[in-house]
Amino acid sequence: xxxxxxxxxxxxxxxxxxxxxxxxxxxxxxxxxxxxxxxxxxxxxxxxxxxxxxxxxxxxxxxxxxxxxxxxxxxxxxxxxxxxxxxxxxxxxxxxxxxxxxxxxxxxxxxxxxxxxxxxxxxxxxxxxxxxxxxxxxxxxxxxxxxxxxxxxxxxxxxxxxxxxxxxxxxxxxxxxxxxxxxxxxxxxxxxxxxxxxxxxxxxxxxxxxxxxxxxxxxxxxxxxxxxxxxxxxxxxxxxxxxxxxxxxxxxxxxxxxxxxxxxxxxxxxxxxxxxxxxxxxxxxxxxxxxxxxxxxxxxxxxxxxxxxxxxxxxxxxxxxxxxxxxxxxxxxxxxxxxxxx
Length: 342
What we know:
By secondary structure, the protein is an alpha+beta fold. 48% of the residues lie in helices and 18% in strands. A hairpin with a 2-residue loop joins strand 11 and strand 12 (243-247).
């Protein structure tokens, strides 16, 4: 890549425009050739990055965020980033971040329209709902959670609300933002989301697992339950009576070099996971393990049936109530954890 192009991209934090490149002395015909040969990647019309940077950016966060920032370079009207774009800036979880559109909210229009690949929302927002993240003016987290629920529905809203509460946003703060939207389209969906949000969900998969269990009619559902094992405390994603549910995300088994969390031999890790499950269940629990594919299409029905069947088997074997020792241990460990976190 020519040094002038690399320098122009570096000066602007990874994105550059046609005008920036021309000012750097690069002819439009040469810019077109770089794009045609794949040396420059058009993030949107007239905004580029290098192929090296684009390849390095992951498709779930960095690339969608680059599209937001690219649009920001081209939008002339007064606005704030909102919805999916605000969620990306705040690093809130999204169901399908790689598919997220660029969203802005404006005070000078009504309704919603798509313009040059950007969704423009005419909506009221107060000055105290606007914040700045890495130089980008965005709506704050409580407002963004409500916008996502209204725009994309219950499940997308639940994922975002769980993520917000996991980061320390209170239910009261979320409810305050929702109250400002009383009577707006789909405001009831927001209320339902906030009624069911749980800060114990530490990932999108854990939220989806809880939603599946809830849809199956199982309950009450407890998140982040501690179990005593020979190797110490094991924190389990969900507890339903004497049945436990664990979500296995692909990132856990992908190597660090591939962007995952596994640092070592895969076979050894799988063996350790099996041993961990045996140690957890030895104390008087059954367990269901779920993966991301279990939450969609025909596999969702199969997973729901399996979960109900396996939970019923655990109930038949162990009952539903925790022993006094189990409950005392859980209360004591939770209290210690909360003191450390707080």
